[in-house]
Known about the structure:
Layout: H1 6-9, H2 13-23, E1 38-43, H3 55-68, E2 72-77, H4 91-107, E3 112-117, H5 122-133, E4 137-141, E5 148-150, E6 153-155, H6 159-169, H7 175-185, H8 197-208, H9 223-242, H10 246-249, H11 252-264, H12 270-282, H13 288-295, H14 312-318, H15 321-327, H16 344-348, E7 373-375, E8 384-386, E9 397-405, H17 408-414, E10 427-430, H18 451-454, E11 462-465, E12 477-478, E13 499-503, E14 508-511, H19 515-524, H20 535-543
Parallel strand pairs: 1-2, 1-3, 3-4, 9-10, 10-11, 11-12
Antiparallel strand pairs: 5-6, 7-8, 9-13, 13-14
Bound molecules: FE2/S2 (inorganic) cluster (FES).
FE2/S2 (inorganic) cluster (FES) binds next to loops.
Amino acid sequence: xxxxxxxxxxxxxxxxxxxxxxxxxxxxxxxxxxxxxxxxxxxxxxxxxxxxxxxxxxxxxxxxxxxxxxxxxxxxxxxxxxxxxxxxxxxxxxxxxxxxxxxxxxxxxxxxxxxxxxxxxxxxxxxxxxxxxxxxxxxxxxxxxxxxxxxxxxxxxxxxxxxxxxxxxxxxxxxxxxxxxxxxxxxxxxxxxxxxxxxxxxxxxxxxxxxxxxxxxxxxxxxxxxxxxxxxxxxxxxxxxxxxxxxxxxxxxxxxxxxxxxxxxxxxxxxxxxxxxxxxxxxxxxxxxxxxxxxxxxxxxxxxxxxxxxxxxxxxxxxxxxxxxxxxxxxxxxxxxxxxxxxxxxxxxxxxxxxxxxxxxxxxxxxxxxxxxxxxxxxxxxxxxxxxxxxxxxxxxxxxxxxxxxxxxxxxxxxxxxxxxxxxxxxxxxxxxxxxxxxxxxxxxxxxxxxxxxxxxxxxxxxxxxxxxxxxxxxxxxxxxxxxxxxxxxxxxxxxxxxxxxxxxxxxxxxxxxxxxxxxxxxxxxxxxxxxxxxxxxxxxxxxxxxxxxxxxxxxxxxxxxxxxxxxxxxxxxx
Length: 575
Ligand code: FES
């Protein structure tokens, strides 16, 4: 079968000479240019992204697998997105990395790609880019870290950081213990080992069919992850020969499976944005309401933090995602095709659950109705989301007065003010942290509670914003309100003291202010324009869509395929 790399490496004359000769300065033997599949290993490794730091090692194991299967592996770097260091937020750059991946793949002589990812946004970014080129692609993640170990108990990244911070702020934890906990939390290679966004995305990618079975949960330092990489290298060579492209795997049914799985694992709300964006790249008409329709009633089958008790290490030892997929067999479409060339049913046929405390059967779930609820109402005409499984049950139906913060800066300046007028009925409202309001939509929706309430032992309040929440976070937190405040959504019109009603069973979020008063406020509202933004931020502000469209750029939706002008060489000879 002709491969796209042949157009570079099998040419005669100057074009072929140039393409092959310079590759030989890396010691590449002539035999590599015999028409074998060229496999791009797209690496988001970076020392600035500690979650992805071992991807250099994993890339070597992928290469071994590619070589063994008769392919020609070529590793290349793309921009990396490290959740813990990048400011203002990695989400600002997700679309940029997707462009980097898309253009790097298309411009080079690659027949297939292995996407090496891990930390939250690196996974969707790489998949979005690969989908817009649509050459055979397969995903490998860095894998979850080993469990944190602190003072004799297991601790999880993110989730326990939030808990420790609240305990430390309220004086129940010493500064020495707080510092010691940060050392104990991150003790191996890998990404967050809670069911945060990275682990959720890894599971969702496996559910989509873009990863070899069982790959999502293997702990980062476990030798079986290296073997998984080796087999991935083997398989991608076959995929190149079979031309098994993302568009053949990512059908609407694959996305529906992913939505159900994200609910069953107690997955991150960020997955909603990423799945919407990926679906847009492959032309699948997924919408926000699909997440409620398909996921809200799904029971929780995985007992992992932040919704449960355990961490990814136990999840892997219990059998991992293949067991969950098998347990969901009545609900999901196990006929969906995957990167193996086989169906999910075939992939998961031999799965065995080794620990019922970690993975439950469908008939005895850890919790009923674990999926994400999509809210509507005058406060969110284009939708908002809440993760009921991570919220205090008594706040899922609540009416209370708003306490409004106009920006993150305003919030940080006032939240611990001893004179703040706040009690357990208050609804914290944070404006202008949406896609355009705080470019990139930061993970600040789970606002920390006022110190005066923490001191009284309160650990949850109803909180609303147009921002996001870390997948490792928890609480009664309404997120992704659309349209956002910065573009004139109703959220911009909320004032302190307004009554807000949340009714999750009825899927309703309502601002109890008469329409004529809202119209008056809207008439007076002025957008905060930022004409000074330039470069990539300017592009983001001009093109990012709202949360209900996955925050992808309007100009990136869809794909352009793998075709390029063959060569700009004046004396290009035929293949
Ligand atoms: Fe990288 Fe959580 S910070 S996965």
